[in-house]
Amino acid sequence: GFKRSDVYICNTIKCRPPNNRTPTPTERDNCRGYFDQQIALVNPKYIVCLGATAAQNVLGTTTNISRLRGTVHKFGAIPVVCTFHPSYLLRDETKKKDCWDDMKMLLALMGRPVPGKS
């Protein structure tokens, strides 16, 4: 039910490390100011973190994504929902239900209807 113009997509780091590896703490820290400034300019009503790297960077934690998902967190005053990265869902389809539950939680938080539900 969202139009592309309704959402803003960004990365927590501004360049991907070699061989697509997980960013080091130094690499994350080097990009943090840009990310914080970007969020301040966009001023989103909600943030959705897709995957552990995004969730951990946004929330400043080392907690794994399985423990972060299913709960609404905060980035300042902005509600944050964390869920699995789409590429992970392609590798483990059993997690798709959990991801859908996270999206339904987000929609409820936003006061929006769940698609396909009467």
Please describe the structure with a list of short key phrases separated by commas or semicolons.
3 strands; alpha+beta; 3-stranded mixed beta sheet; globular; 118 residues; 5 helices
Explain what you see.
The protein has a 3-stranded mixed beta sheet with strand order 1-3-2, sandwiched between helices. It has helices spanning 25-42, 52-59, 65-68, 86-91, 96-110; strands at 47-50, 72-75, 78-83. It has 118 residues and is an alpha+beta fold. The radius of gyration is 15 Å and the shape is globular.
Count every beta strand, where a strand is a DSSP E run of 2 or more residues.
Answer: 3
Strand order of the largest sheet: 1-3-2
In percent terms, what proportion of residues is strand? 5-15%
Give me the number of helical elements: 5
Summarize the helices and strands and which ones pair or pack.
Layout: H1 25-42, E1 47-50, H2 52-59, H3 65-68, E2 72-75, E3 78-83, H4 86-91, H5 96-110
Parallel strand pairs: 1-3
Antiparallel strand pairs: 2-3
